[in-house]
Amino acid sequence: MDYRAIARQELNTMGAFRSPWLRSAFDAVDREAFVPDAFWGYDTDEHGRHVVIDKVADADAWRRAVWNTHRSLITQMNDGATAEQGPLKGDFTSSISALDIVFEKLNQLDVAPGRHHRVLHIGTASGYDSAVLSEVVGSANLTTIEFDPVLAAGGAENLRGAGYTPTTVCGDGLEGWVATAPYDRVISTAAVRSIPRPWREQCGDGAVVLVPFNTLYARGGLLKLRMRGGAASGRFVGGACYMWVRSHRPENQLVPPVDSRKDASPIDPEEVLGRGWAQDFALGLYLPDVSLTHRGEGEERQVQLWDEAGTSVAIVDYGDWWRDRAVTVYGDRDLWSELVGAYSAWCLAGRPDYRRFGLTCDEAGEHLWLDRPEGVLRSRATW
User: Fold this and answer.
1) How far apart are CA 283 and CA 267, in angstroms?
2) Which of 279, 205, 278, 235 is nearest to 373 (CA)?
3) How far is CA 52 from CA 49, 64, 75, 89, 283, in A?
4) Which residue, among 175, 353, 227, 198, has the nearest Cα to 281 in the 3D structure?
5) Read out DSSP for 71-82?
6) Beta carbons within 10 angstroms of residue 81's beta carbon
7) Widest CA span in the chain
8) Which of 95, 97, 194, 233 is catalytic?
9) Per DSSP, which regions of 215-311 are E strands?
10) When comparing pLDDT for 302 and 380, which is higher?
């Protein structure tokens, strides 16, 4: 079965090649050359461990997964484990992005052969994205940086083996790379929750910054910013669920359960929490420093919220939410009231789609806006 041809047809049908040079870039780069012989899939075994897809054991299944247009390939867990260790539970810490989002991001990046764009790529990993970028902008115009030394060495080796010679760096991508600046484009393959100052400082006027942007509440927005006069401003242009840049991961601190107070909820938690990713992402933009987790089932089901500082917690019962003891609050902030307030603000604004939101980053901090930069909803200093 020619899985590569099938992927090419699917990508073409979904508009992934609307920038026509991306079709030739797809054809030129052999994705298989950038994929290890073993990686994890999303399926799990009876012990909840992610199963390994092994080229030696089943070359057809391996190739089918490599050219799957919608699934990323998990190549590292827990900041170092590889699939050679077999089925595993843990946190995904590196992957090869799915083909659909790779090419959607390149469409959004506004690059083209012959325009001599200088590009900074954050998150080399296996090198596949860097190879495709090299096909479009040329190796001489690309700098690709990877934080993990093992991944950086492997990605650089894969690129050299395939004939690509971008500047490869092992370092902290949040710091950029001054030696090859200024950049016309910055693209990240890891998610942030604040735009690093060095990216702005190393970009020229008119540059595009394209990055997956998460809040602690919800993941998955693709943010496209353009530089003007030292400030970066733009809106969310799609969904993009990526792993965190390592230093931006939430720490999930919790306060001890003391000094609690109880109250009723003014609204059914299902209205706020059970309406899908797009609503969650919008609410997270209003309240970016609050995390949540669910626990229990049926009548015992609860949601727990906590703030980034680790000083406030709220626990909300789904069952009998109108009772005067349904909400338990710890600490200085009433996080459930804040979340309900964010939900009310979103409803009063007409339940806007997440693509109507944007962000401006300047010397004063980050400013969330709706529809236009003048319509600021909240501002915060960068951390």
Assistant:
1) 15
2) 235
3) 9, 14, 10, 11, 36
4) 353
5) --EEEEETTTB-
6) 16
7) 67
8) 97
9) 221-228, 231-239, 261-263, 290-295, 302-307
10) 302
Token pair belonging to 25:
């870039």
Q: Is 222 exposed, middle or buried (0-12, 13-18, 19+ CB in 10 A)?
A: buried
Q: Write the pLDDT tens digit of every residue in 128-184.
A: 999 999 999 999 999 999 999 999 999 999 999 999 999 999 999 999 999 999 999
134 is annotated as an active-site residue: no
Q: How many CB atoms lie within 10 A of CB 337?
A: 15
With H, G, I as helix, E, B as strand and everything else as coil, classify residue 152.
helix
Distance of CA 122 to the CA centre of its chain: 12
N-terminal to C-terminal alpha carbon distance within the chain: 50
Asked if 89 contacts 50 with a C-beta cutoff of 8 angstroms, the reply is: yes
How many whole angstroms from its chain centre is CA 292?
18
Contact 126, 35 (CB under 8 A): yes
The amino acid sitting at 225 is L
